[in-house]
Task: inverse folding
């Protein structure tokens, strides 16, 4: 898979790797059982410090996204998809929260914000390609 | 484990200028250490002291537990380190292959094969004279020569200055490959984007002093850029909460940008609530902003007498994290 | 990577290889220059007489090659590495500083030894090829009191010193050119010390030791001391250079304050004057960057003006020109060092203050090549001009020739400067160009001298040559600035240089081209006549002739009587041997013989005519003698003609003239006898045989002399024709000098002279055409005397002088015998 690392955007590099792996698992780009590249190979490919990569892998492992396979490296856990989708949802929620906060902070009323959001949903729903099957409905709209 | 490089109280005084005014640094083995500083900050002087070209006016230097300025120890030291300088002066009349053969005779076996691997990887023509190579190719030759004997410590002095992005990328990859095998890399540069990706620990050198030193991740985490919008620019803002320190501050119109050490969000929140402040936003500072803050003007110098994130500070932060 | 101790042979050989490779350009340049000098000397001296045929005389070329190499080796090994900073990289490798210094020292020595061996082998080969005595033999060849083996030893010793001193200086000083420059005073120091000590010692041991062995011994001892010092200082400097630099001591007190103040310069201080053009900026840079150099130059100029300036090179104090070249010894080294410094100032134009690395800076900023060229030359040329003016002023009170001398000195200085700057644009490395420049200057000097001497190039044509060489660097400035130094660059430079060097030869060549030469038809005819039976030019045994002057202090009558006896002896000899070539061509001078012959015949004739009146005809011995002598004439004439020599042929004609004179006497028929008279006249009338003999003689002499001239060198014998020395001035108005054109002119003039003589024979004897041609021919001959050799008032005049060939040819007398015969026939 391709990573896109931006050293400047305020998010720590290891965090960016973690997120992108989770997204990839959630989107089906990384399938369960697939091996991640080695620390060294990924570090060289991305031109980032191996310790950073190691840290990211460590976090992924501790969060149960990947599991070490003896002699082969880290592989995506079978049950990682669900948790990654949850994580993806959380990240997206965070992003929406940031956007709404900014809107409210800028002086828009709650009604205006709601109007904005609904308009966008109306416009985009059905017109955006999806990468995977939709999540099970776990919460009410 | 002992440090790969240990610099204690090093000062360097030339006629008419003080290049280094007291440097204390410790570099752990197996890390990538980046030394940032503007031109004339003293980076090259420090590296010349590390590589044994220059004796410091005062202070002690130990590299891999050896003293580079002593001639008996420096010979053994040079076998174990690789050094790439800025625009290295190789023998122009030699071909790429010849200079490898020449250097190989001074190191142990395996240099030639290793060198050949590097040459092939960088796609350098073995039969061409060095004077006919481009700048990037020369830098790659110098790098190959420095890496072919698998040194424990790699010292690079602005190796990619003036090189195109592809060559710079190749240099980065080589540095990382070396670091990945557990070797130490000491890099001096002002290519901030590269350092952000590659460094474990950084130090910022300014006017002969270390202004900032510490693990990059920690530094970035612990330093925030807070933008404060004021009603009236002449009103002084309140002090930040005691756990924060202001490192630098710029005023423009009715806005102030402050570089704050510590929890940026908390500081921003505190300021937002204080009088005369319309808004305060916090984000983590980029390394470039850090660098500019450390090196521009005397504001930082005047406020601090001790470099931020000195060894005590670092261990404190590590303690905080764990 | 295993860590076992490294095999020292491996890295030592790699290091030695690298050092040797760095020396290759220097070695090749020096050897090529040595070869070039050798060829130049060979070519130019092949025209001289005597040519340099002894290999010993080339020894200066052979001995100087290793010495010049020794000057450059240390500086190239260390100085070049320092300047290119590759020494820094070398130090970053795991080599100890001792090993680096040791290897450089060893390689310097080994390469110097190699160059010596190559040079000596080349010398031996050269001597062998030129077929002369090998001068490296053990026999002592004394030239000017200095034996060759000793000279060799001294040269080797000096070269070792130069090598060590160069190394030491290069380790010590940052700039390679400074080290090169300082070689001069260090060598001088050793030499002066040796000179002083030898002078001092020679007063003590005046009698026991020969002077030159003392001098050489002291010199070698001082050199050895020099080795030790150079080695020690060089080693210390090398270790200091190669190990960690010590920190400079902190500046204290007022020095520190001054330093602190200096570093606080504001931006305004950088504006030196309000408006700067690129030209003035570059001139400022040139002075400011190398201010030490220009200060040294200024100091040297002052010193030179003080010591050598007021000395006239050519002293015209006497009534006629006497040339005292540099009368005071102390100024000679100053002139030589001054020339060297002027040369290196020229080299500085394109190599100094690292201009070669900076030209791209200028090129990128659009500085025009002409401007850069001009700024590089402006300062040195101004210095030279100023020096010239100062010298003229220092020669006060001036006489009229001082201006000429000043111009001459200035011209030579400019020529040296131009050579230096040309060399430095051609050769990329500053050290090699600094070393090659003196050799090139000497070669240029030799070349110009040879062009002037050999081809008679006038002095003003060298202005063109050197102006072209100066313009060549201006022309090639653009490619040089852009560092487009490839083979086209060298080809262009070479073409311009070839043009510049050919120009001095043009006047001479033009003169030669315009010289008239003999028509080829005439030449083939002459060759045809010259070949054939080889003449009997055997040498004639010397037979002393009769002495004509009786000695003694007796009275006149006794003298006359004793002379009478001699005369009788002479008459008898004549009667027996008048037909004998040995009688005529040996012993007393031929003109004396001829005069006596004529006189004796007259005397005999008068005897015969007086005897006739006394009725003692036909029985007097005088008459017999008379006729016998005359009867010998045809024989001697034939013998002389057979010799195929012009002088013999002319002698034969003079003898014929004498005989004709006798035949022309009023009573000749009776006095000579009818049969003899007729046969004589018949013989004398045979113009065909005479002409044939003349042609053969002229052709043979011309041809033989041409062969002899071709075998010898150019200068001599251009004007010999057999035994005649031709001094003619036909081509005098072609006023040109130079050895080669002169000798070609001599040869051609000789040919033309002979061609005109040949042409003379085409006209009829006694005709006005013949007379006109004879006039023309005689006009040109400078040694001609105004003796006539024709018939004047019925009297045949016989010239006895012997300077001019063929003066009897086609005279009026040639028609007389035939007339006499026809008159006689008419009578009968």
Result:
């Amino acid at each position: 898979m391709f990573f896109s690392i931006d050293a400047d955007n305020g998010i720590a590099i290891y965090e960016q790797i973690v997120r992108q792996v989770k997204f990839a698992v959630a989107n089906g780009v990384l399938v369960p059982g697939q091996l991640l590249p080695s620390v060294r190979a990924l570090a060289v490919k991305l031109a980032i410090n191996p310790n950073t990569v190691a840290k990211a892998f460590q976090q992924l492992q501790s969060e149960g996204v990947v599991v070490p396979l003896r002699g082969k490296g880290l592989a995506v856990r079978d049950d990682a998809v669900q948790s990654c989708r949850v994580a993806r949802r959380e990240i997206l929620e965070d992003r929406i929260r940031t956007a709404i906060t900014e809107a409210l902070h800028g002086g828009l009323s709650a009604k205006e914000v709601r109007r904005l959001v609904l308009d966008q949903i109306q416009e985009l729903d059905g017109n955006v390609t999806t990468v995977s099957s939709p999540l099970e409905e776990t919460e009410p709209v | 484990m002992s440090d790969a490089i240990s610099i204690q109280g090093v000062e360097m005084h030339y006629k008419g200028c003080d290049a280094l005014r007291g440097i204390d640094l410790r570099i752990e083995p197996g890390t990538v250490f980046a030394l940032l500083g503007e031109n004339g900050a003293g980076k090259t002087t420090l590296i010349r002291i590390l590589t044994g070209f220059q004796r410091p006016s005062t202070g002690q230097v130990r590299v891999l537990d050896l003293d580079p300025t002593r001639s008996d120890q420096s010979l053994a030291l040079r076998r174990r380190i690789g050094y790439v300088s800025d625009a290295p002066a190789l023998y122009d009349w030699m071909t790429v292959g010849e200079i490898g053969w020449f250097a190989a005779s001074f190191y142990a076996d395996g240099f030639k094969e290793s060198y050949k691997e590097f040459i092939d990887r960088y796609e350098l023509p073995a039969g061409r004279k060095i004077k006919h190579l481009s700048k990037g190719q020369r830098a790659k030759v110098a790098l190959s020569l420095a890496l072919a004997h698998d040194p424990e410590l790699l010292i690079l002095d602005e190796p990619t200055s003036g090189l195109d992005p592809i060559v710079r990328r190749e240099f980065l990859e080589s540095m990382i490959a070396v670091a990945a095998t557990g070797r130490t890399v000491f890099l001096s540069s002002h290519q901030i984007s590269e350092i952000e990706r590659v460094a474990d620990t950084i130090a910022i050198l300014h006017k002969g002093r270390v202004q900032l030193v510490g693990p990059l991740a920690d530094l970035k985490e612990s330093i925030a850029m807070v933008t404060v919008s004021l009603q009236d620019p002449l009103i002084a803002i309140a002090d930040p909460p005691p756990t924060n320190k202001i490192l630098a501050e710029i005023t423009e119109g009715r806005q102030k940008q402050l570089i704050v050490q510590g929890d940026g969000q908390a500081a921003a929140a505190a300021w937002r609530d204080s009088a005369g402040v319309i808004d305060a936003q916090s984000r983590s500072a980029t390394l470039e902003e850090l660098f500019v803050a450390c090196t521009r003007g005397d504001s930082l110098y005047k406020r601090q007498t001790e470099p931020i994130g000195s060894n005590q500070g670092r261990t404190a932060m590590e303690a905080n994290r764990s | 990577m295993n860590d076992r101790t490294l095999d020292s042979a491996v890295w030592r050989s790699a290091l030695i290889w690298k050092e040797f490779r760095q020396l290759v350009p220097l070695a090749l340049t020096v050897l090529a220059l040595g070869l070039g000098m050798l060829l130049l000397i060979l070519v130019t001296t092949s025209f001289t007489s005597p040519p340099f045929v002894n290999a010993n005389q080339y020894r200066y070329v052979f001995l100087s090659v290793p010495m010049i190499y020794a000057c450059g080796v240390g500086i190239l090994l260390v100085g070049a590495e320092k300047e290119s900073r590759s020494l820094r990289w070398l130090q970053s490798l795991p080599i100890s500083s001792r090993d680096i210094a040791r290897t450089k020292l060893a390689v310097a020595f080994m390469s110097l030894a190699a160059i010596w061996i190559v040079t000596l082998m080349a010398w031996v080969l050269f001597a062998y090829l030129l077929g002369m005595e090998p001068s490296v033999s053990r026999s002592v060849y004394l030239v000017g009191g200095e034996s060759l083996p000793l000279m060799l030893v001294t040269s080797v010793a000096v070269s070792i010193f130069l090598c060590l001193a160069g190394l030491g200086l290069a380790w010590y000083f940052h700039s390679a050119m400074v080290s090169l420059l300082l070689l001069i005073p260090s060598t001088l120091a050793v030499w002066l010390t040796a000179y002083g000590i030898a002078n001092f010692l020679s007063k003590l041991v005046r009698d026991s030791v020969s002077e030159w062995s003392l001098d050489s011994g002291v010199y070698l001892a001082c050199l050895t001391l020099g080795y030790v010092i150079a080695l020690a200082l060089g080693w210390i400097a090398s270790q200091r250079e190669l190990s960690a630099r010590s920190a400079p001591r902190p500046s204290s007190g007022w020095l520190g304050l001054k330093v602190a103040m200096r570093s606080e310069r504001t931006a305004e201080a950088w504006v030196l004057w309000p408006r700067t053009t690129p030209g003035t900026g570059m001139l400022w840079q040139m002075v400011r960057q190398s201010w030490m150099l220009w200060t040294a130059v200024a100091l040297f100029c002052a010193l030179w003006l003080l010591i050598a300036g007021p000395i006239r090179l050519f002293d015209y104090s006497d009534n006629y020109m006497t040339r005292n070249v540099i009368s005071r010894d102390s100024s000679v080294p100053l002139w030589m060092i001054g020339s060297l410094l002027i040369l290196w100032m020229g080299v500085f134009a394109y190599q100094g203050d690292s201009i070669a690395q900076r030209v791209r800076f200028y090129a990128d900023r659009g500085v025009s090549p002409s401007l850069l060229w001009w700024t590089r030359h402006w300062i040195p040329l101004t210095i030279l001009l100023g020096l010239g003016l100062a010298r003229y002023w220092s020669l006060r009170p001036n006489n009229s020739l001082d201006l000429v001398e000043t111009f001459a000195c200035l011209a030579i200085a400019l020529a040296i400067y131009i050579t230096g700057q040309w060399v430095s644009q051609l050769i990329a490395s500053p050290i090699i160009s600094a070393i090659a420049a003196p050799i090139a200057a000497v070669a240029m000097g030799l070349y110009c001298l040879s062009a002037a001497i050999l081809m008679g190039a006038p002095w003003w044509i060298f202005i063109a040559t050197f102006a072209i060489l100066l313009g060549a660097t201006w022309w090639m400035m653009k490619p040089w600035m852009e560092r487009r130094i490839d083979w086209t660059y060298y080809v262009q430079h070479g073409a311009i240089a070839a043009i510049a060097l050919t120009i001095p030869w043009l006047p001479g060549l033009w003169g030669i081209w315009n010289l008239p030469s003999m028509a080829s038809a005439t030449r083939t005819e002459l060759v045809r006549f010259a070949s054939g039976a080889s003449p009997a030019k055997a040498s004639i045994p010397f037979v002393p002739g009769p002495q004509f002057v009786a000695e003694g202090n007796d009275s006149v009558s006794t003298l006359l009587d004793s002379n009478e006896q001699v005369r009788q002896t002479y008459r008898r000899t004549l009667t027996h041997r008048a037909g004998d070539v040995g009688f005529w061509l040996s012993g007393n001078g031929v003109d004396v013989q001829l005069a006596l012959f004529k006189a004796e015949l007259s005397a005999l004739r008068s005897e015969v005519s007086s005897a006739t009146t006394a009725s003692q005809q036909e029985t007097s011995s005088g008459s017999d003698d008379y006729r016998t002598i005359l009867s010998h004439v045809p024989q001697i004439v034939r013998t002389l003609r057979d010799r195929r020599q012009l002088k013999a042929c002319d002698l034969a004609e003079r003898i014929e003239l004498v005989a004709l004179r006798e035949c022309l006497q009023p009573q000749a028929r009776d006095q000579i006898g009818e049969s003899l008279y007729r046969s004589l006249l018949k013989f004398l009338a045979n113009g065909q045989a005479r002409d044939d003999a003349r042609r053969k003689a002229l052709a043979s002499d011309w041809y033989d002399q041409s062969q002899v001239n071709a075998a010898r060198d150019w200068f001599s014998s251009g004007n010999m024709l057999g035994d005649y020395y031709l001094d003619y001035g036909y081509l005098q108005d072609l006023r040109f000098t130079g050895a080669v054109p002169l000798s070609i002119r001599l040869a051609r003039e000789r040919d033309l002279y002979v061609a005109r003589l040949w042409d003379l024979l085409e006209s009829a004897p006694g005709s006005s055409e013949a007379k006109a041609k004879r006039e023309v021919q005689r006009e040109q001959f400078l040694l001609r005397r105004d003796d006539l050799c024709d018939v004047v008032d019925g009297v045949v005049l016989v010239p006895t002088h012997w300077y001019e060939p063929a003066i009897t040819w086609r005279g009026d007398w040639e028609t007389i015998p035939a007339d006499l015969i026809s008159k006689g026939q008419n009578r009968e």
User: Anything to note?
Assistant: DSSP finds 31 helices and six strands in chain C.
